[in-house]
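WARN no homologs supplied; continuing
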Amino acid sequence: MSIPIKVSIIKKISNLRKQRAFTFTLGISFILLCSIESSRAEDTYSTAIYGALMADNNLGSVFLSPDLDSSYSLLTLVVNRKVAQYKRCIDFGFEGQIVKHCGNQHHMELNGVFVSRWLPFPWDQILDTSIAVGEGISFATEIPEWEKQRHPHVSQLLNYLLFELSFSLPSFPKWGLIARIHHRSGVLGLFNHVHGASNALGLGLRYTF
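OK structure emitted
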């Protein structure tokens, strides 16, 4: 068997293992969610809007030292529904996003995300704080120009991650200021051999009802 064929087989096996690991992780998350007592009596909806600039960083450095590019921006409308809560410490919910890219790219982006939110902090009586992490799917209506310029492999459909800090005043609990990392990626080649993709750092407002 020739070396190129062996390399191709090894890559296919590696990609299959990544797909299985990814599917297994999603399955375990779903089982854990189903095992948590539902909070239907306290179901909460929220909506948010945030603007963001694309950041020429990897995910590890985008929040601490972002290299922002004002010629690539996005505006996102968010609708979120809380579906469960664990011991008044963690909220679980689903979120839908509609994203409009502006500047040097003009496509739309649609994201569906499962979100976990850590609630208690010792200073909440002064400034109510929460941290959220989200995992889901992102679909761009066309190949993003930002990603096309930076990666040899691109895809309209990619994995989506969000990381969020949220703050609100106890006297105005329904309103909150949010800071978000908006991340699309190929999960180490799982999506169409894409390694890396794009990060954006944004600020916005949330209203809970």
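The radius of gyration is 19 Å.
OK
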